[in-house]
Every structure is written in structure tokens, then in C-alpha cells.
Amino acid sequence: MSYTALYRKFRPQDFEDVKGQEHIVTTLKNQIKADRIGHAYLFCGTRGTGKTTIAKILAKAVNCEHPVDGSPCNDCPTCRAINAGTSMNVIEIDAASNNGVDNIREIREEVAYRPTQGRYKVYIIDEVHMLSAGAFNALLKTLEEPPSYVIFILATTEAHKIPITILSRCQRYDFKRITVETIADRLMELMKKEGNDVEEKAIRYIAKAADGSMRDALSLLDQCIAFYLGEKLTYEKVLENLGAVDTEVFSSLLREILAQHTSQAIRILEDLIIRGRELGQFVTDFIWYLRNLLLISASDNPEEAVDVSRENLERMKEEAQMVDTETLMRYIRIFSQLSNEIRYSSQKRVLVEIALIKLCQPVMETNLDSLFDRVRVLEEKLSDPAFLAGIKASEKEKETAASGGIQGNGYPRISETERIPEPKPAKAAPEDLQYVKKNWNSIIRETKGLLQQMLLESTPKYDGNTGEPVLYVEFRNFLAQTCIDNPETVEILKQAIQKKIGKELEVKLVMKKNEPGSGGGNLAEISVDNLLQQNIHMDVTVENIEDDD
């Protein structure tokens, strides 16, 4: 006889064998005992949590000739026919491959005929979210008012894709992920029945790797047993077969990362690759390890927060004190992004190495959580006496070099009296106002923000009473009062003018004359001919100065 996979061989045949879904089992058993059976059920949940299994058990229970406490007896002809897959009363449909309108129309035609044996005709439609929009519409009326002898059981992993018109016609049952403890207990029970020698630690790792799916756990266990056929299944053998990594490796890797030893962290990764570890599984397990550290650091009872051995827990408590919460969250963020990218990448090793370098060198990032990590590294260095001693020695060398007339760069030291002061820019003359006037737009372009917007609506003027080389900037927009009140505004504008004309010009900011408190006296438009005549008392001819822009 051919071999039967564990998940098929040990598929539950009654409600008592179903593990981890007690809330659903109890409800269905009570409905059967009270004869309050619904006409349409919707089973939602992740893969391998028992949706199809419970659907088949329910189909047997409603047709069983001798039910026992709401469960099928599995002895009557009806139960045996359903178990063998020969019953005409239970019809299983895969909506992934039968998702058209014609397939649903066939169901509508078939429901007109009563069951040949038993009380109910049960339709189990798996992956019902794959039905087309037309197929859903064709199913609506039949689903709402089926004959009294018809029951629909819809199963799906993506309930959000099902139309609300279908959801409102069904009793919805949400299947939970099965806990690690429940899966581990079930696997140990089955291994005793099979007579296989397995290590409890190995079983617990398989249960955790199954991620809440009993079927996945049985498939992984089946794979490991086949690889080490006839041998005791140990924790190390499970890691070897699944391409996983031991937690001690994660501990060593994390300590190298915290110490910013990039080369050692890359060397650990290289060793894992040489040993044939799967990088996608490595990334997933390291995220889980960091998650456990985060729970330990944030929990008052770490023993209840994580499911690890006492030895690993003590080591993880020590590591949780070595790193702050913000840094752990940064590590998890980087590796979570990596988990999404590595799935479709052909250069997985390069992506993992880049992620490790980011973890070791927080200076490569500029976001807030990397800043926390950089502060942590700096605090650790400042608390190191050897590091502080090195800083003091460096400062002492500089002082010695300075006192001996030698600078830190090895060149002779120049005294402050020997330094040549930078020449100050010359004072602007009255005739420079014309150049400012002609190049006003290019000067404005040297400024930014609100000041630039206000200057675009301003007018450069001078005081006609004095004729002094003072530039008055007259604003017309009342919003410019903010710029006038800001003492930095004048300096910004003076620097822009100095950059343009190469001379220092006094600048005053005023509001238009008719504004209260504007000041400005007898301000006039800058006219070079009148201005020069007032100051030099002679007629001159001024050539047009082209804008250098």
C-alpha cells in the first residue's frame, strides 16, 4: 500500500479530535444536538487551521444515523460512504478551478433533487473567494433560500474578497491560528502512535515554524522524519533539514552588531551560507528573535512573554539590557523591509549583507530611530575609560604642538599678530544706489522664502532730504511687517547686496508711507542724475550699466 502523508493519515474524523478551534466545535455540536442547523456557513481563517476538516465532519454529523453528542459515529453506512468519498450527498467543489457562472448554474440545477441517502445534501465550496462576480451573483438566490435539505459550507482564506451580499446570508466562523503548545502536544501524541523517537525541543521548533497551521506542522514533521528515517529526530537535525539557524547564532550576531563589528557580523553570515542555511528563513527567524527581546525588555514577567528555554531566557535578558527599545525597533524595521525584498530577489546575500551593515553603522541612516542608535553608541564610547584617555592624549598633543610653534598639521604656527586680517568691504557711494536699482531682481534671487516674496512687491528708494547712500526698501504688503520686525532680515539683504556690488551698503526696511508708523520721511525713487547732482554739484553723464545676469 502506498504511503499516506501524516496530515491526511491523521485528519480528524469527529469533533473531539479537532484541536485549537473549540469555540467553533462547541457551537456546531450544540446546533446539531438542538436540531438548529443553518443553511449556509462561512469558514474563514488562515491555511491549515481545520476549515475543510470541520466542514467534512459537519457534513457527516448532519447525515449520521447514530450521532454521539453531536459528533458522527463513523460506523453507519452514511458516515463510511462520506469517509470513503463515495457519498452522493457531500459535494466538494474547488472554486479556484470551477469559478465560472456555468459551474454555479449546475449547482442550482442539482439542488432541485433530494438526497438519495441521509437527510441533507451538503455543498462544500473551498476557496470561495476565487469565484467570479457573475458566479457570486448566480449563487445569491440559491444561497438565500435553498431547499430545506441543502446546506452550503463556504471556506476561504481571504474573507475580505467575498461580496457583502454573500456574507450577510451566511453564519460566519473565524478560525484562529493554533497555538504552539496545542500543535506540539498534537505532534507528540501522533509520534507516539507512529512509534517514532523524537526530541521535544525539535517538536516545539516545528510547531513554532508552522506559524499556527496544523497541516504545515505535520508536513514539516513528515519531511524531517523522511530525511532521518530510522534515526532519532533531534533539534539539530530539524535545523539542518529546514535550513534554520540556532538561537545561539542569533545571540552572537546581535552582540557583534551592538559592538559595531561589521566584518565579524558578515563573517557569521558567510558561515551560515556555507553551511547551507536558507536566507529567507534566517531573516524571518532573526526578526522573531528581536521580537522576543523586545517583549522581554517591555514585560514585567519575561517568562510568560516568550516561549524559550531557561538557558536561552537568561541570555536574552542580558541582551535586552544591552540594547534600548528604539534600537530594537529599528533593527526589526530594517529586517522586516528586507523580508519583503528578499522574497523576489536573485541576490539575496547582497541584500542581507547591506541590512547587516545598516545595523552595524547607524550613521548610514538619517531617520529618528537610527539617531537613537547613534546616541547609544556615543554614550558607550564616552563611558569607556580607554576612549576618554585617547581623547585627552590627543588634546594634549595639540596643546604641546601649539606651544612649540607647530600646528596640528605639522606646519609652523602663525601667531595671531602675524595673521593678515581680511579686508573689509568698502562703503557704498551714492552712485552705487543706481546699480542696486538696476540689479534689484538679481539681488532678490539671492534671498528665500517669505522675504523673497515680499521683496518682489517692494520698491528700492532713498531719502531725498539727506541724499546719503542709504537704501530704503519700501514694502507695500502688510505681511512684510514680519520681515521688518526680524533683525536677521536686514543682514540677509545686506549680504545679498554686498555679493552683487562688492560694497557695504546700509539698508533700512519701511512700510509704505500711508501705513501707520511706516516712517521713511521724504522717500523718493532712485534717480541717478538728481542724486549725483545733489552730492557732487555738477552735471554728469551716466552710462547704462547692463545687468550682469
Automatic annotation (TrEMBL):
This is DNA-directed DNA polymerase. Residues 37-179 form the AAA+ ATPase domain. Keywords: ATP-binding, DNA replication, DNA-directed DNA polymerase, Metal-binding, Nucleotide-binding, Nucleotidyltransferase, Transferase, Zinc. Residues 398-428 are annotated as: Disordered. One of its GO terms (molecular function) is metal ion binding. It comes from Candidatus Blautia avicola. Gene3D superfamilies: 1.10.8.60, 1.20.272.10, P-loop containing nucleotide triphosphate hydrolases. Its EC number is 2.7.7.7. GO terms for cellular component: DNA polymerase III complex. It holds the Pfam family DNAX_ATPase_lid. Residues 415-425 have a biased composition (Basic and acidic residues). The gene is dnaX. The lineage of its organism: Bacteria, Bacillati, Bacillota, Clostridia, Lachnospirales.
